[in-house]
Amino acid sequence: MKVIIKKARIRDAKDCLECIKQSLLWDAYYKDNQSIDLIKEAIKRKEIYIALNSNNTCIGFMGVIEKGCFGNFPYLAILSVHKKYRSKGIGKQLLEKFEKIGLKKADRVFVLCSDFNTQAQKFYKNNEYEECGLIKNLYKNGIAEHLFVKYQL
Predict the structure, then answer these.
(1) 64-88 residue pLDDT tens
(2) Fewest beta carbons within 10 Å, which of 20, 90, 121, 135?
(3) Would you place residue 33 in the very low, low, confident or very high pLDDT band (cuts 50, 70, 90)?
(4) CB pairs under 8 A, 24+ apart, for 126-135?
């Protein structure tokens, strides 16, 4: 399924939140009333991109922090696809857009992936990301984050 990817606007925040619901990320990190505010703040910083289908409906989104990893390298802060649209290539298109943005600015890009999210870990490995570290209790006690890197070829 081909999508259009563009920067989000404040009015897209609720749609982004809907993409996270019914996901492992929602269960671990986002089940509170402050989640919408976090998304809105990231939109204001111009860090959120949305994926729109042919009906102009938001079916996925990602957060890109251009100097988010070690203050130098692009960092994919979140990637989420609405449950109805998973396994249709939407995540891959978002990831490719992240790489296009990030690898213009640096020779590598980074992403963190929670230890419980084994499907996402496989996704990044299948897209040529190398695991380069594990950070215990980074965002939440009891959850480790796998650090992945992809180098420009």
Answers:
(1) 999 999 999 999 999 999 999 999 9
(2) 135
(3) low
(4) 127/92, 127/95
Just give the CATH number of 4-151: 3.40.630.30
pTM: 0.94
- Per-residue pLDDT of 129-141, as tens digits, reads 999 999 999 988 9
Question: 79-114: buried (b, 16+ CB within 10 Å) or exposed (e) per residue?
Answer: bbbbeebbeeebbebbbebbbebbbeebebbbbbbb
**Three-state SS string across the chain, please?**
CCCEEEECCHHHHHHHHHHHCCCHHHHHHHCCCCHHHHHHHHHHCCCEEEEECCCCCEEEEEEEEEEEECCCEEEEEEEEECHHHCCCCHHHHHHHHHHHHHHHHCCEEEEEEECCCHHHHHHHHHCCCEEEEEEECCCCCCCEEEEEEEECC
